[in-house]
Write a structure and sequence with these properties.
- The chain has 22 helices and 20 strands.
- By secondary structure, the chain is an alpha/beta fold.
- The strands form four sheets. A nine-stranded mixed sheet has the order 3-2-1-4-5-7-6-8-9, with helices on both faces.
- Helix 18 packs across helix 22.
- It is globular.
Length: about 550
């Protein structure tokens, strides 16, 4: 976590201003040729939206803009937009005190993370959430409060149009607001960008366009465009008539860019009593050592400090697992390669019973400050790791092509780079793990997980548990074959050619067309994630090239 003292002024107030092209697009969508709208901008900055309204001679009834920073508010006032009131103050206070209601609310609310949010604003944010019938988490980013508060300030029919971080679509702390928006609005459009809009902060953003019109429908659409300039050629009919019904049983919006037949296949799986991993197992984070470099070591360090008594088998990196079954032989190969294949599990009396080598190793840890780390310093004995449990299986936390689900036959411990899977008594372990290797389960992993950056897919325990998989005890027959294919480094598609046919077509009963659609759906999801990895790399290169030219 970055300390507040180290944060830039821009980060502290979330001040990253909207490109005029985006501001213009949101306003044109919201005003839609009308002339009587009462417009609010809850965090106007230096007035980009107001400037667009003036320069494009947009017709409206009144405009109200709120800005916390006095210097920025003065810039907004200097624009001189007619019938406009600029309020220098905190939107939280404005939201709680005003009696005004608006037809259109637009803006780019501040992206202020909870650690930069002052205590007074947090109290006011909690009141706004309470007024909306919601409960605010202390982890909630400021933009969520702006969205909730703005929604409360709309008239019976009205629109909101915001530039928001793409985490709106998937993070846990925004789950409540996603459901709130889905219940409140009749039409929701999400517009995402292939290229970063704010390159200076490497923050992916989306445009959220919501309309409530008094009908009973709740429709959503997710459209992706190349960049901000591409908004000029976006067909407005796509925004007027979203086609996909909102699924109130899902907690993420990451997959509404899929086609109707793809969404229908996912819904079919949900409604067909296909089980999830949590029906057969509990998933927990791996062991949190607080200092992996100290507690996870190769054999040479075990021997050097005579740590054999406290060194337990472990696996901590994805490159150390290249199979469906992590065996004792696999672990021994990692030992031979001088991988960090041992976890140090010290008891509280380790200094007394450990001998000279153990005491020297612990002393070195203290000299290097391991004992002063956040996790280690709050323990009774800094070197005693909590929650030392062996799991039946392992599920990799961060992944490139697809997340691996692996049997832990070696009985190895794992750090928090992998999740521990505890399979319930009576469940066929090999059958459960083999059941996961199919296009449907891989697709749900993409949907439930999140992009961690660089194209990496990250999954948390609750997201792993929600993955649908066609469990059948007969699937054990596939276990050794999948294991061998993985050891031979076969491609995912070579594996899925076999498993999809048996798991999805023969045993789940999907048609040939549905099986093909499942595979293409997974390809589509993974290609979208990995294309962002390539894009990020390209944009970083371009940015570096620009700096080099400036230096020249």
């Amino acid at each position: 976590m970055q300390l507040i003292s180290e944060a830039s002024a821009e980060k502290l107030r979330g001040a990253y201003y909207t490109p005029p092209t985006i501001a213009s697009f949101i306003l044109r969508w919201g005003i839609n040729g009308g002339s009587n709208a009462d417009v609010l901008e809850p965090s106007c900055g230096d007035g980009v939206f107001l400037e667009c309204m003036r320069d494009e001679q947009m017709r409206f009834h009144t405009a109200t803009a709120v800005e916390y920073e006095e210097k920025e508010a003065e810039k907004a006032k200097a624009i001189g937009l007619r019938n406009t009131e600029i309020i220098t103050g905190d939107f939280h206070q404005f939201c709680l005190n005003t009696k005004q209601r608006f037809d259109l609310i637009v803006g780019n609310p501040p992206f202020i993370r909870y650690q930069y949010y002052d205590s007074k604003q947090q109290e006011l944010a909690t009141k706004i959430f309470k007024n909306a019938g919601l409960k605010r988490s202390k982890l909630t980013n400021a933009w969520v409060t702006f969205v909730v508060g703005s929604t409360l300030l709309l008239k019976e029919t009205g629109k909101i149009g915001f530039v928001l971080p793409s985490e709106l679509l998937q993070v846990t702390y925004a789950q409540q607001v996603r459901n709130f928006l889905a219940q409140t609005f009749n039409k929701i459009n999400i517009i995402s960008f292939e290229h970063l809009v704010f390159e200076e902060i490497q923050q992916e953003v989306v445009i959220l366009l919501c309309e409530k019109n008094g009908s009973n429908e709740h429709l959503i659409e997710h459209i992706e465009v190349k960049d901000a300039e591409a908004l000029n050629s976006l067909d407005p009919h796509q925004l007027k008539f979203p086609t996909k019904k909102i699924n109130f049983h899902t907690d993420k919006w990451t997959y509404y860019f899929l086609e109707k037949d793809e969404l229908e296949l996912l819904e079919l799986i949900r409604k067909s009593n296909v089980p999830t991993i949590k029906d057969y197992a509990d998933v927990e984070v791996g062991i949190t050592t607080g200092a992996n470099n100290f507690f996870t070591i190769p054999k040479s360090i075990v021997d050097m400090y005579q740590l054999q008594k406290f060194a337990k088998p472990m696996v901590g990196r994805s490159v150390q697992v290249n199979s469906l079954n992590f065996t004792k032989q696999d672990w021994q190969q990692n030992v031979t390669k001088e991988a960090k294949a041992f976890l140090l599990v010290f008891p509280s009396n380790a200094k007394r019973i450990g001998g000279q080598g153990v005491n020297k190793y612990l002393e070195n840890g203290e000299l290097s400050g391991v004992n002063t780390g956040y996790k280690t310093s709050i323990r009774d004995d800094w070197f005693v790791i909590p929650s030392i449990k062996l799991s039946d299986a392992l599920f990799l936390r961060r992944n490139n092509i697809y997340p691996k689900f692996v049997l832990n036959e070696a009985e190895a411990y794992t750090t928090d780079t992998m999740h521990r899977v505890f399979i319930r008594e009576g469940v066929n372990k090999k059958a459960l793990i083999a059941s996961y290797y199919n296009s449907i389960s891989f697709a749900f992993a993409e949907i439930f997980g999140r992009n961690f950056g660089g194209g990496c897919l990250e999954m948390m325990p609750s997201e792993v548990e929600n993955i649908y998989l066609p469990y059948n005890e007969d699937n054990e027959q596939l276990f050794d074959q999948i294991d061998q294919l993985l050891r031979e480094k076969k491609t995912p598609d070579e594996i899925l050619d076999i498993t999809d046919n048996i798991l999805l077509r023969e045993r789940l009963g999907l048609t040939d067309e549905q099986v093909k659609l499942a595979r293409s759906l997974w390809h589509k999801l993974i290609a979208r994630r990995l294309s962002r990895e390539a894009l990020e790399a390209s944009q970083k290169t371009n940015k570096s090239d620009k700096k080099d030219k400036q230096i020249e």
